Amino acid sequence: MKSGDIIIYACVIIGAGIGLMLGQALPGVLVGLGLGYLIKYAVSRDKEN
Hints:
Layout: H1 3-22, H2 25-48
C-alpha cells in the first residue's frame, strides 16, 4: 500500500467520523475524500522538488 493511499483512507475515515457526529455520514466521507486527494497531491508534489 502506498503512503498516498493511506492519506486518502485516513481522511475518509476522519470525515466519516465527523459526519456521523453531525448526523450526515455521506457528506463527511465525500469531503474527507476530496481533502485526502488534495493532501496526497500536495505531498507528492513536495517530494518531486
